[in-house]
Amino acid sequence: MAIATGEAGIHGACAPEFARVREVFADNFARGTETGAAFALYIGDEPVVDLWGGLADHRAQTPWEHDTPCLAFSCTKALTAAAALRAAERGGHDLGAPVASWWPEFAVRGKERVTGEQLLAHQAGLPAFDRGVSVAEAADPAAMADRLAGQAPEWAPGTAHGYHALTYGWLAGEIVRRLDGRTVGRYVAEEIAGPLGLDLWVGAPDGVLDRTARLTTGRTGRTDRAPAANRTGTDGGTAPPAASGARPADGPPADGPRARLARDAADPLSMFSRAFANPDVAAVPGRYNNREVLRAGWPASGVITTAPALAGFYRDLAAGRIVSPDTLRDALRPRATGPDRVLHLDSSFGLGFMRPSLTFAVPRAARQGAFGHTGAGGSIGLADIDHGIALAYVMNRTGTELSGGLRAMRLIKAAYDCLR
């Protein structure tokens, strides 16, 4: 690969035929929409793009390095799903069977027939806790699972789907805990990240947190040249939900799904707000920069990763190194498609993985083979089994869009344009 240097302090390597990706990555900084970010792309096992730039910490003026990890929010869900699929495959368990066959406490209040597949496909009707959960309580996956097991569903399980923004991790994670005995964080470390040499953690140790990028929600200007006074922002603010590049305030028509989403986002009692704001990270100092939150490794939203590691996860998943090709092929078959009871927009899910839809926007060429997961504020991990690629984008300035926003979309489009 050719070394990329120059504009906006961009570093790394990029194959000549993917020069357009480097240009778009640099342009995101030139537009003033980035603080620090990284993008990685594999074709098969070959790395063809590995770029980084900007600041990992705008307060300390710490530069983003090749090994700078960053919180990638709901990109975690794909790891948790892969762990559940692997644990079931290794143990010979049928995820199409009722959850009660391995989690007896779950079979109450109309959930007796809920299957493991429905947990993974956001169909269980448990998108939010029915009472407040503290950040400290959320560090105990067994306690979180127990709470959800005792709840009544918001809809008849299997009849609809809705994005389980935070509860997903403790529901899908219980598949791992019950079938294998390990937490998602430990399973990912011992079965996926460690053996495959991936710098990603669902619950990071202090040594990793010491070099983790600091999140900001503010507009910081050009991070390579702007005066220090312009490089400030609101730290660790609660990031927007993981959905699509459209802003919920885009509005008309007044009765359309985006308008309903905007109204729900402003209503603290709506299913949308309850799904995204409990546990309430805004109640702790530093919010998503808080070490208690990051150390806990919430299995729906807590992965800390580099871009090459997240892309490497998808590379290895597509190559059959995490689950068998048959298991992955079945997991990619859409189980829930259409209007989302939480997001209102159309979404599409296989067993834990997003498929192309309004909430997982991809270029036209990717609409058949792409799968992956977005993360709140803009991060994304994606693989395409038709084109044989895997990519990831992580950044520390959480955008105002719902995730999978314009910065990520421009990079992904550039990558597919280069493939042609």
Automatic annotation (TrEMBL):
Composition bias, Low complexity: 231-249
Residues in Beta-lactamase-related domain copies: 26-412
Entries under SUPFAM superfamilies matching the protein: beta-lactamase/transpeptidase-like (SSF56601)
InterPro entries: Beta-lactam-related, Beta-lactam/transpept-like, Beta-lactamase/esterase
Pfam families xrefs: Beta-lactamase (PF00144)
Positions of the UniProt region annotated as Disordered: 214-260
PANTHER family documented for this protein: BETA-LACTAMASE-RELATED, BETA-LACTAMASE-RELATED DOMAIN-CONTAINING PROTEIN
Entry protein name: CubicO group peptidase (Beta-lactamase class C family)
